[in-house]
């Protein structure tokens, strides 16, 4: 995945009990940043979610107050979803 790619959220579960739902399954987002944590986890930032929050990398066990980011596995590139045979997924613009 690269900056500027359109992606679809495929997993909006609240994994770490963060009391904010900022992404929704089936919604299209645009990547504003793709980066790798020092532990190797790959995260993305989204143009449509531009708020600061205390974020946590579970593998590093490090907290930082920064623009929200999400694990890359929560998203699929839009062209991958459209070209797949999963005809039951509803995709919407935010």
Topology:
Layout: E1 6-9, E2 28-36, E3 42-46, E4 52-57, E5 62-67, E6 70-71, E7 75-77, H1 78-83
Antiparallel strand pairs: 1-2, 1-7, 2-3, 3-6, 4-5
Radius of gyration: 13 Å
Shape: globular
Indicate how many domains the architecture comprises: 1
Taking the alpha carbons of the first and last residues, their distance comes to: 20 Å
Q: What is the total tally of β strands?
A: 7
Which percent bin holds the helix content? under 10%
Count of DSSP H/I helices: 1
Mean pLDDT rating: 83
Structural class: mainly beta
Give the percentage of residues in beta strands.
35-45%
Question: Could you walk me through the main structural features you see in this protein, from its secondary elements to its overall organization?
Answer:
This protein has 94 residues and is mainly β. It has one domain. It has 1 helix and 7 strands, in the order βββββββα. Strands 6-3-2-1-7 form a 5-stranded antiparallel β-sheet. A two-stranded antiparallel sheet has the order 4-5. A hairpin with a 4-residue loop joins strand 4 (52-57) and strand 5 (62-67). The longest helix is centred in the C-terminal third of the chain and has 6 residues, at 78-83. It is globular, with a radius of gyration of 13 Å.
